[in-house]
UniProtKB/TrEMBL annotation:
Keywords in alphabetical order: Mitochondrion
Species, as recorded: Picea glauca
Keyword Mitochondrion: yes
Keyword Mitochondrion included in the entry's annotation: yes
Name of the protein in question: Uncharacterized protein
């Protein structure tokens, strides 16, 4: 699952997916 940065900058998307995507990003690193 991949979201472009433009999508992450959208408030509604960032509010819903922000914490989840940050967890995935931390797990990858």
């Amino acid at each position: 699952m991949f979201f472009p940065m433009e999508v992450l900058e959208m408030p509604s998307m960032n509010e819903r997916w922000g914490p989840y995507l940050r967890c995935l990003h931390l797990e990858k690193e």
